[in-house]
């Protein structure tokens, strides 16, 4: 699968493409660069986001997993830049328990682009599965001018 790396203030990121869609975003460096036009565009959009010039990503995405995982990712993708929802908000929209939403958020394969950092617990800040944990989540929310609860 083609991969490329990009350095951001949120750490080094690896983007992965498979069959014409972005399928993963992870922290680290790709062992070998194998860039495609889509990966070049994805890196440009991440660069623009990190520089404050982009609020919405326009990339083909493919989320592996269950229908439920894809439904949670769709709900997260609908959260506007700089805003947050709670696990309970998403759970109510889907008619499922908040704990299940939390697990699906933690399994998000394409963080930042699918903004799981915009999902909070009922009592405020919760963990983050990306490198740096909650500190990275706070950095992403501050970058967006989001409310930290």
UniProtKB/TrEMBL annotation:
The keyword Ribosomal protein does not apply. It is an enzyme of class 2 (transferase). Its main location: cytoplasm. This is Methylated-DNA--protein-cysteine methyltransferase. NCBIfam families: ogt. GO terms for cellular component: cytoplasm. GO terms for biological process: DNA alkylation repair; methylation. HAMAP family: OGT (MF_00772). Keywords: Cytoplasm, DNA damage, DNA repair, Methyltransferase, Transferase. Residues 67-145 form the Methylated-DNA-[protein]-cysteine S-methyltransferase DNA binding domain. PANTHER family: METHYLATED-DNA--PROTEIN-CYSTEINE METHYLTRANSFERASE. Pfam families: DNA_binding_1.
């Amino acid at each position: 699968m083609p991969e490329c790396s990009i350095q951001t203030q949120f750490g080094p990121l690896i983007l992965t493409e498979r069959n014409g869609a972005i399928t993963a975003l992870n922290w680290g460096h790709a062992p070998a660069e194998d860039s495609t036009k889509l990966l070049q565009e994805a890196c440009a959009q991440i660069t623009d986001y990190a520089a404050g010039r982009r609020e919405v990503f326009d990339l083909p995405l493919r989320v592996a997993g269950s229908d439920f995982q894809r439904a949670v990712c769709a709900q997260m993708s609908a959260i506007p830049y700089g805003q947050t929802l709670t696990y309970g908000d998403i759970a109510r929209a889907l008619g499922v328990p908040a704990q299940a939403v939390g697990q699906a958020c933690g399994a998000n394969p394409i963080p930042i682009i699918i903004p799981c950092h915009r999902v909070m617990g009922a009592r405020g800040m919760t963990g983050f599965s990306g490198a740096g944990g909650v500190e990275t989540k706070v950095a992403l929310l501050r970058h967006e001018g989001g409310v930290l609860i």
